[in-house]
Amino acid sequence: MYSEKVMEHFRSPQNIGSMQDADGEGTVGEPNCGDYLTIYVKVQDGKIKDISFLVFGCTASIATSSMITVLAKGKSLDEAIKITEQDVIACLDGLPEQKQHCSNLGVSALRKAINNYFEKRGICNPQTGNEFSSKSYFTVKTTRV
Fold first, then answer.
1. Can 33 be counted among the known catalytic residues?
2. Disulfide: which of 24, 42, 100, 138 matches 116 by Cβ 3.0-4.6 Å?
3. C-alpha–C-alpha distance, residues 42 and 66, integer Å
4. For the chain, what is the domain count?
5. What is the CATH number of the domain that holds 74?
6. Mean pLDDT value across residues 67-84
7. What does the pLDDT read at residue 33?
8. Residue 132: its pLDDT value, please?
9. Mean of per-residue pLDDT scores for the chain
């Protein structure tokens, strides 16, 4: 059912854990009825210096959360925010169709964490102008100071 790469990230997830001094944090999901993910980022010189996650979910949720952190670590914020669900699925050598929605969690949480970083600093998100957004999961408007 799952690729060897999915099982590898499920058995030994990378970058797992909370981050007390995170520069940005993004949470998606509903803990009472399904998968729930928080991604933490530490940013230095416009790049993701450190990244970690906490997840409550199935095998695919754990594997996709691990993979999104691997893909984002070391990338500029501009590069990281462009990572797609299909990028995650491809790097895991595929996911069963009924589990592909799990990749949405990681991508959305990463985008929320990056946007949270921008918002905390009053920085305009270069991807969206003054509007900070991550698909349909949230929208926060801010003004440039």
1. yes
2. 24
3. 16
4. 1
5. 3.90.1010.10
6. 97
7. 67
8. 44
9. 86
